[in-house]
Amino acid sequence: METLQPIQERKANRIINILSIVIPVAVAILLGIRQKADLGYWTTYLPHINAVINSITSLLLVLGLYFIRQGNVLAHKRTMLTAFALGSVFLVSYVLYHLTNESTPFGGQGWIRPVYYFLLVSHIVLSIVVVWFVLRAVYFALTSQIAKHKQTVKWAYPIWLYVSITGVIVYFLIAPYYTH
């Protein structure tokens, strides 16, 4: 097992920290743009695609846990890197949708309204937090720092799984209110 030089480690940590700040800030700025781009009607399908991506990611996360508990490191690695790639595709798709379409207001009433907003707010907050954990977990795994990877995954995994699952639940709760 090759250990990284302290300078390389600091550089990697700096990049992870910067990305963990830049990604949520960039998404917030892009979401705040009032003038929507017209890329065509196809962009109205992106929330549905995003729900599929989140569903698959949730399944991959559970499979990844299964594989590592079975000692199948290669299957675990492939599964988790696929989940990471899907998370990246989701991010691009999510931003693209919100750059081209107005946000859909939730129309539910009664007890479901506070449930929806609790899930939505916790999903958003934790989706910001999880970026740092996931980037570190992937970095530690790819650099064979397994002890640090395991330590990071104790936090990254449940948060990432929660974000993926609540993304799907929030989608199903708001889907009846899409106008397209």
Topology:
Elements: H1 6-32, H2 46-69, H3 73-100, H4 112-142, H5 146-174
Helix pairs in contact: 1-4, 2-3, 2-5, 4-5
Transmembrane segments: 12-33, 45-68, 80-97, 117-139, 159-178
Protein name: DUF420 domain-containing protein
Keywords: Membrane, Transmembrane, Transmembrane helix
| Fraction of residues in helix | over 70%
The amount of beta strand, in percent, is under 5%
Q: Residue ranges: pLDDT <50 for 5 or more in a row? A: none
Mean pLDDT: 92
Task: Tell me the number of structural domains.
Answer: 1
Please give the alpha-carbon distance between the first and last residues. Answer: 53 Å
CATH architecture: Up-down Bundle
Structural class: mainly alpha
Query: Topology as H/E string?
Result: HHHHH
CATH topology: Four Helix Bundle (Hemerythrin (Met), subunit A)
Strand tally, please?
0
Which CATH class? Mainly Alpha
Biggest β-sheet strands, sense, barrel = none
Please tell me how large the radius of gyration is. 18 Å
Overview of the molecule:
- With 180 residues, this protein is mainly alpha-helical.
- It has a single domain (22-27, 37-177), classed as Up-down Bundle (Four Helix Bundle (Hemerythrin (Met), subunit A)), CATH 1.20.120.
- Helices cover 77% and strands 0% of the residues.
- Helix 1 runs antiparallel to helix 4, helix 2 runs antiparallel to helix 5 (146-174) and helix 4 (112-142) runs antiparallel to helix 5 (146-174).
- It starts with 5 loop residues before the first helix and ends in a 6-residue tail after the last helix.
- This is DUF420 domain-containing protein.
